[in-house]
Amino acid sequence: MSERNTPEVNAGSMADIAFLLLIFFLVTTTMDTDIGIYKRLPEKQTDLTAITLNEKNVLEININANDEILIEGDQIMKIENLKQVVVDFIDNGAGTNNKGNKCTWCNGKKDVTSSDHPEKAMISFQSKRNASYTTYISVQNEILSAYAQLRNDLSQSLYNKTFSQLETELKNNKGNKTLAENVQYIKAKYPQLITEQTPKK
Fold this sequence. Notes:
5-stranded mixed sheet; alpha/beta; elongated; 38% helix; 5 strands; 201 residues; 10% strand; single chain
């Protein structure tokens, strides 16, 4: 009997097909990107000098292990009331800045037990390591929202535009010197003085 030859499968084009499939999946597949919070780190300070802070010019905000927000160490505060507390503290204007100038644009209560001037008003923020991330972010948002409100109000009274509008216009017109000066002026009136301490265990 004659031997029967088994027909061979032509696999010459399999490599081409596999390569085309690989390209197809690379092109059509979406890759997950890391999602986080945009946070601009402060610039490195070259001239480090000792700063003496008066206790009344520091507002302490803490988050404990139970996600409770504490003001000045013992007063429990609801998140919805935190923004106003920060606004009142920064805008108090009871004294003068380091040059002896009073805050003529402050609308605060002038409480002698609170901050002297927006240039001296320091927000000290700290959380326990086992505090929830949600509460941590919420507190940060309220602090930044307080600064945004103060800057918007002052900008509105001076330029009939909110500070947010000024920044948007400056972003679209980077060469506009007047806009840049206006933005820097508002920032100088309400500088963001926030210190975040290392979380406690």
